[in-house]
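<context>
A single protein, sequence plus fold
<entry> Chain with its tokenised backbone below
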Amino acid sequence: MRTTTGARAGQYAALLAYLVFLAFPFLWLLSTAFKPASELASLHPTWIPQDPTLANFRQAFEEQPLLRAALNSLLAALAAAVVAVAVATPMAYVMARHRTALARAATGWVVVSQAFPFVLLIIPLFLVLKNLRLIDSVPGLVLVYVVWALPFALWMLAGYVRAVPAELEEAAAVDGAGRLRILVSVTAPLLAPGIVATALFAFITAWNEFFFALVLLKTAEKQTLPVVLTHFIGAEGVADLGPLAAAAFLATLPSLVVFAIIQRRITGGMLAGAVKS
């Protein structure tokens, strides 16, 4: 009994230490965003700002077009999420319901593709977009985001499809429903939570993405929010800490809110995909 209690206490202590480790960067970012220049230059920094100010936020909006960049990020992320889910949903259904050798090979490829680094993909993607004349365009960036989000979306949605009992579709077929009617009236409503969670995950991925946007977008008016944040760093690598922290804090909020909404659904989708029927 004592051993069990001690092990549980150790687990809770490790979990608490891990949470502190994860929360430290965000809390320090929040503290920096509200500190005046005098405190930022202090040799003895404090957690809580002694004289909190909103000057960093005003300066950030004055120095860089944050609203325009946020709009570009929002349009690209929304479009990528919608297209990725629209393409992945029927493909995931086929992969989950028709467990052929080809479907298993496709599933394996989906898993392996997640190990590819960005640098390995950027050259072929750049050449494809160049031939399509989509370099330095938001549609081209959306296409790249869809390609990047599609493997995980397929894997995640396939888990949700497997969690839907096939007997429900068979019962609907016995009652005379056709394949399209079964998909629309029986399967789709049960997949709705998974579709929403997958779309939100694709949105977060596109909203936070930096590397592809940096390489593919050259016009200042088309740059996304993560790229614009780098403009707070001078040519000599000196960062304007106050405005940078304020802008980064605002850019982080949407991701935190969306992830807080979908984290349980993502876990449910992973567990559903791990259960064999």
User: Anything to note?
Assistant: The radius of gyration is 23 Å. The CA atoms of residues 17 and 23 lie 10 Å apart.
